[in-house]
Amino acid sequence: MTMLSPPAPVSVAQPTEADVALLREVRELYPVLARELGKRIIGQQDLIRDLVVSLLAQGHCLMIGVPGLAKTLLVKTLSECLALEFRRIQFTPDLMPGDILGSEILEETDDGKRVFRFVPGPIFGQLILADEINRTPPKTQAALLEAMQERRVTVAGATHSLKAPFFVLATQNPIEQEGTYPLPEAQLDRFMFCLQVGYPSRDEEVQILLRTTGVSEEKPSVVLTGEKILALQHAVRAIPVPQSVAEFAVNLVHLTRPSSPDTLDIVKRYVRWGAGPRASQYLALAGKVYAALDGRFNVSREDIAAGARLVLRHRLLLNYRAEADGITADAIVAELLKKR
Questions:
Q1: Bridging pattern class, strands 152-155 and 102-108
Q2: Of the candidates 188, 217, 178, the residue with the CA atom closest to the CA atom of residue 73
Q3: pLDDT the model gives residue 307
Q4: Looking at the chain, which residues constitute the CATH 1.10.8.80 domain(s)?
Q5: What is 101-157 written as a DSSP string?
Q6: Which residues contact 235 (CB under 8 A, 6 or more apart)?
Q7: What are the beta bridge partners of residue 38?
């Protein structure tokens, strides 16, 4: 019998001088971007950082929070600071896939012929706010799948590419469950991060009141353009992930699966299904951006751990026992990180 040898470690390429120059800009530009967003958004510094991380990693975000926490204002302001084409889609029970993707209409040409012409839908923007995405049926939710993964859409057999950079921010209201349609696991897996939007502090709420009830408003300045974002995204991808750090990320994801022989009792007791391979990829990409924001050109285990909750919390399918015992996905991820 022929014995198979273990795979050789993959060689890790180093970023070029051009990449290093761009990566230095990441650390310099982030405070500028945060300051411009702060002209309209009070607090939410962690949320702003996580949005920027997802953007530079070419991911999408699911934002969960009660109404009135400035989620829409944050996304709109971000699009202004990045000079991106902003589109808002308000999801409702009667929304159809064609209302998102676009449709073909029959029109008559000058010579009397009738031809179909494609009319693009709101998905043909660059920064898409999918507001209350769980209020529309699965058929319409699924219209986003190809766009989020492939950066293209197919209508009537024809494929149309979306303009880069392309970034989807979806919101959910965690309070109202009547008339909602939970996102299927395949849809959730397309989101890089799941962000919990919390209430502002007392002092922040006082500032919000004073700033939003007057007559003057500061207008944020453009910090980045689409072309610059694409260059930064490419440079971030060039940051190497050491073999040991890659193994750490994969091991962390494996521990979320009840079938894994090394997992913890808390996973076997409360988790029905764990995270898939896409979680490992997103952990590595998030780690690269965290490293760049810190001025480093390689990924550490701490960078992987920094994004663990955001990447894994919506990928763990918990059972009814977890709900009865008040166990959350965040608590399980915290226990897994202790084992590292």
A1: unpaired
A2: 217
A3: 93
A4: 239-340
A5: HEEEEEEE-TTS-EEEEEEE-TTSSSEEEEETGGGS-HHHHTHHHHHHHHSEEEETT
A6: 15, 18, 19, 20, 22, 23, 26, 292
A7: none
pTM score of the predicted model:
0.88
> Would you state the structure tokens that stand for residue 157, as one six-digit string?
């057999």
Residue intervals of the chain classified under CATH 3.40.50.300 are: 13-238
Q: Which CATH superfamily is domain 13-238 in?
A: P-loop containing nucleotide triphosphate hydrolases (3.40.50.300)
Q: What is the pLDDT of residue 305?
A: 94
Give the integer Cα–Cα distance in Å for 331 and 311. Answer: 14
For residue 106, the tally of other CB atoms under 10 A from its CB is: 8
Q: What are residue 131's DSSP bridge partners?
A: 90
Q: How many CA atoms lie within 13 A of 60 on its CB side?
A: 27
- HEC-encoded secondary structure of 273-325: ECCCHHHHHHHHHHHHHHHHHCCCCCCCHHHHHHCHHHHHCCCCEECHHHHHH
Positions of the chain with pLDDT lower than 50, given as ranges: 1-3
Sign of CA dihedral 191, 192, 198, 201: negative
> For the segment 114-156, what is each residue's pLDDT rounded down to a tens digit?
777 778 888 998 999 998 888 888 888 888 888 888 888 888 7
- What is the Cα–Cα distance from 280 to 286, expressed in whole angstroms? 10
Provide CB contacts within 8 A for 192, sequence distance 6+. Answer: 54, 57, 59, 60, 61, 282, 285, 286, 310, 311
Taken in order 32, 38, 43, 46, is the CA torsion positive or negative?
negative
Cβ(13)–Cβ(238) below 8 Å: yes
pLDDT digits (tens, 9 = 90+) for 245-269: 999 999 999 999 998 888 888 989 9
Structure confidence by residue, pLDDT tens digits, 151-170:
888 887 788 888 889 999 99
Residue 301 tokens, joined: 């285990």
Residue type present at position 2: T
CATH numeric code, 239-340: 1.10.8.80
- What is the reported pLDDT for 176? 64
